[in-house]
Amino acid sequence: MSAMRAESGSRLDVVLVKAGRTKIRYPAELLADDGTRVTVRAPWAGGAVRDFGFVRFEPGDVFTEHYWRDRWYSVKEVRDARGGLKGWYCDVTRPATRLGTELVVEDLDLDLWRSADGTDVRRLDEDEFAASGLPRTDPEAAAAALAALDELEGLAREGGFETLLG
């Protein structure tokens, strides 16, 4: 039995770090870890409803989250409580690190949304990214982050994330 199969179903804590501090920590079920990509499933960790105008995240929503150790982003499939696909929320991050039962991800402020039907693809929080100072303090990381956002947008507009996640 592979290590990936032996661990499947165990619990990980996803730890999202921003500006050196833990932004959010939540438990998730480990679905797979192939050494490059870690996939987990977790209920909406925000507690209350969060209405972005173009999508609402609410209690009962389920996120299947894909993190890479060699890519500067994560892709999260979002489904409602009945299993209906809402879309994909993507975070631009530094590559993920798994430390025992923690999956640590550093958020770099840039995000992307793709609706379930693909008609709505949005780049998000570019103003927050500019205000973060990263382009000034770590230009290489900033360039990698912007390239990751461009890659995500290209995937989203070219039909979605099925090829990436398959």
Automatic annotation (TrEMBL):
Q: Where is the DUF402 domain?
A: 52-161
- Give the species this sequence originates from: Streptomyces kebangsaanensis
Record's keyword terms, sorted: Hydrolase
Its lineage reads: Bacteria, Bacillati, Actinomycetota, Actinomycetes, Kitasatosporales
Q: Does the keyword Transport apply?
A: no
Entry annotated with the keyword Metal-binding: no
Source organism, top-level taxon? Bacteria
Pfam families per UniProt: DUF402
Q: What InterPro entries does the record tag this protein with?
A: DUF402 (IPR007295), FomD-like_sf (IPR035930), Ntdp-like (IPR050212)
Protein name per its UniProtKB record: DUF402 domain-containing protein
